[in-house]
Amino acid sequence: MSPILLLCIFFSVICPADSVPEKPKRSALNQLTRTLLRHYDCGIRPVINWTSPTMVYIDLIIQSVLDVDGQMQKVTTSIWYRQIWKDEFLVWDPEEFDGITEISLSSDAIWVPDVIISEFVGEGKSPVIPYVYVNSSGMVKNYKPIQMASACDLEIYAFPFDKQNCTLTFRSWLHSVDEVDLALLRNPEEIATDTREFMNNGEWELLSVPSHYWKLNLANKDYAHIQFNVLIRRRPLLYVVSVLIPSIFLMIVDVISFYLPPDSGTRITFKTSILLGYTVFRVNMMDEIPATAIKTPLIGVFFAVCMVLLVLSLAKSIFVVKLLHHSHEEVKEMSISACLLAKYGSTEQSFSETLFTSVRTLDDLDHSGYEFDLSPEPDLLSLTETQFSSPQLEKILEDLTILKLFLQEDEIEGMAQKDWLALCYKVDKFLFRIYLLIFTVYSSTLLLLWSSWSSS
After folding, report:
1. How far apart are the C-alpha atoms of 402 and 154, rounded to whole Å?
2. Which end of the chain has fewer beta carbons closer than 10 Å to its terminal beta carbon, N or C?
3. How does it sit in the membrane (predicted)?
4. How far apart are CA 363 and CA 350, in angstroms?
């Protein structure tokens, strides 16, 4: 017996065959994945007959409206997107692989349709989902959440009672309808009324999501499109309480301020305070009002008109006070008693002393035997004494005549001022009625517009 044979017998006795480690078997899932992707090319459309199109089924669920930017004309939404198509190269018999009917594959390892959203304007913040599900019949399910900013033609004229219609259009970027065709996964009625996943506690309310399929012809080729119309409506309660009601209250206070007497001197001060307060209020509310470069919201026009009305109210009050000042100064200057006031009205004390001296002199003369006849009319004022003529008596007579004229002219001036004051009050009432009419018509028009928008 050769030494080599003996050595083999020795090792076989020491190390039996059962102690040799076996190579681990691959799992059925691993074998299935290797089998499917062994000769797979992700750059080729997965059809056996190249003339048959790949049908891609699309579904959409709106989860929330995150932001509406009127100035940039874009809307940020959070959606759940579902995409299903058939890959004819990913088909297997479940009985050959331990009954496996569905597996997950990397989306980078297989063909994925180039379906995009036409209104997409910003990079989404969606979580990365690197896998897709594939079943044994070759149906590929690509489910993923998307947070996206899309362009939208926003109509904010009716703010805060506005409704928006934003579209999300899905289409293949390169393939025509002969290569990649689109279809809805669910019927349009079910998609339009499906709002169960929408977060309904925010500023916006989801009304419906109608959808339709259409084709666009470019360069003699038809391209499939599926468009979802996201109809949303703003909840106006927050803006009514914080913006409209304070503004309306300030305007009502301005109307009530017309009942202050125009000659009291406090009306202009009060109206100036209201105008200043409204200006501060409007500056603070500018960030709450959406802005566009083309159209101004009706509430912006409302604020501007309210400012104009407050300025007109202040100007009207200034005009009435100016009329009152005119009656006090101009009538006084036009009266005949201006000369008398220049002589006797310089100080109240000098006029009283002159009057006291004249009366005392008349009293002395009366006790001396002279007789005076003082009638209410200036021409009946006379001094009767047959044999008396004195410079002192003539001076007294002149002073009494001047005093009589002054009292009459002062009475006439007071009556003129009363008439002028009554005229100014009539002018003030007339201008107030015009202002109130303008304010009522404008407010009623706005309320009718906003009520019709909110109820529709």
Report:
1. 82
2. N
3. Multi-pass membrane protein
4. 20
